[in-house]
Design brief:
Elements: E1 2-3, H1 24-27, H2 30-56, E2 61-65, H3 67-73, H4 77-88, E3 92-94, H5 111-128, E4 134-136, E5 142-143, H6 144-152, E6 157-161, H7 164-167, E7 175-177, E8 182-185, H8 187-194, H9 209-217, H10 230-238, H11 243-255, H12 264-270, E9 274-275, E10 283-284, H13 290-293, H14 296-312, H15 321-330, H16 334-338, H17 345-370
Parallel strand pairs: 1-2, 2-3, 4-6, 6-8, 7-9
Antiparallel strand pairs: 5-10, 7-8
Helix pairs in contact: 2-4, 2-10, 2-11, 9-11, 14-15, 14-17, 15-17
């Protein structure tokens, strides 16, 4: 279950040129961000209550909370307590992740990736008292290079995308052998809940627990992995769909068919991994990742991030390093790349100009600090 509320950048147009040390409030409207949390947080609370009911009926879940979301919900005591109660249920697993919800796994130097994972793990331990054993990268991205690092850092398994380039015509219904035991998301069934649940024109509508459980029961294998977006579930709930009834009743529908809900780490401990040679490919990524790195503007922005990160690493002893590093972290958020995507055409180009302007201002400050 992916839970992420990004820090969206402002429209930033320097009037008299670049100057001074960049601050978060120069580029991000944090008042607007936290105002949004006040509304969204109430929806998250209602969903957490539904998941608590589902757990009481036999449900098990894993939550992938992003760093920006952790920073926001720590300011909402009621929401923080809600997630703590889920953690105490022992039927919920909280996974490791990249703190800034970045694509740092694609950088030539993976030191930023390693640091993000470390920072995230420390904050999860501080806020919820848990130490993650399962890792979920941004957009379910997986590369062999990161697998080695994650194994070295002590993770026990990971979840990645069950994309066509590794699954072919097979279903991702096993634990697969790799540097870490690997669970692969079942794309179609995940998106039935994530995207299509409220679509009245969809041939599967209405999707009731018994129908969905029958679909799962008809698939042979050891374990089937669903990965959903919490915001999508909020939208279904807001649209007065039947998602609340579905969440409550789903565990019992599965149980009546002899199917048990378990956490990722339980699956890794229970089933023997199968070999899947295609996991050795250069990278396996969410099939929609073309929306993040599919055009020239996005690739340029990603390369510029790499360059600024390298230059930032040279000023670790300077007094403004930590302030600059914080801004750099949030400029890595995957949503910035997605918003420049091919599907956004004209607005995407305008956003690209805006984000390059922000990144240029940050780089100017880094180079001035280095001088």
């Amino acid at each position: 279950m992916g839970v992420h509320l990004p820090y969206s950048p402002k429209w930033y147009w320097p009037v008299e040129g670049f100057s001074g040390v960049p601050e978060m409030d120069r580029y991000f409207d944090r008042n607007q961000i936290f105002t949004r949390l006040l509304k969204t947080g109430r929806e998250f609370l209602r969903l957490n209550d539904l998941f608590t009911e589902s757990i009481e009926r036999g449900g098990s879940y894993a939550f992938d909370l992003s760093g920006p979301f952790l920073e926001q919900f720590r300011l909402d005591p009621e929401l923080l307590e809600s997630f703590r109660e889920l953690a105490e249920s022992r039927r919920v697993e909280f996974t490791g992740s990249c703190y800034y919800h970045s694509l740092s796994a694609l950088y030539p130097d993976l030191s930023w990736f390693r640091e993000e994972v470390t920072i995230y793990r420390e904050m999860l331990r501080e806020l919820l008292g848990v130490s993650p054993e399962t890792f979920v990268n941004t957009e379910l991205l997986y590369t062999q290079r990161t697998g080695d690092i994650l194994a070295e850092m002590g993770f026990k398994c990971l979840i990645a995308e069950g994309s066509k380039n590794i699954m072919g015509e097979y279903d991702p219904v096993h634990i697969f052998e790799n540097q870490l035991p690997t669970l692969l998301r079942h794309i179609n069934l995940s998106e039935d809940l994530d995207l299509r649940f409220s679509e009245k024109s969809w041939e599967g509508y209405p999707l009731i627990p018994d129908k969905f459980a029958d679909w799962i029961a008809g698939i042979e294998g050891d374990v089937l992995t669903l990965y959903l977006n919490y915001t999508s579930l909020c939208l279904h709930h807001r649209n007065k769909s039947m998602i609340a009834d579905f969440i409550r009743a789903f565990p019992e529908a599965l149980k009546s068919r002899g199917i048990e809900m378990i956490t990722p780490s339980e699956a890794a401990n229970r089933f023997s991994p199968l070999r899947l040679p295609t996991l050795g490919t250069e990278q396996t990524i969410r099939y929609g990742m073309n929306n993040a790195v599919g055009n020239h503007a996005q690739q340029l922005y990603l390369r510029e991030l790499v360059r600024v990160g390298e230059e930032l690493a040279e000023i670790k002893e300077k007094k403004d390093y930590h302030r600059l590093k914080q801004v750099f972290g949030y400029l890595q958020q995957s949503e910035i790349l997605f918003s420049m995507g091919p599907g956004n055409s004209r607005e995407g180009c305008e956003r690209a100009v805006n984000y390059y302007s922000i990144l240029s201002d940050l780089r100017r400050a880094v180079l001035e600090e280095r001088a």
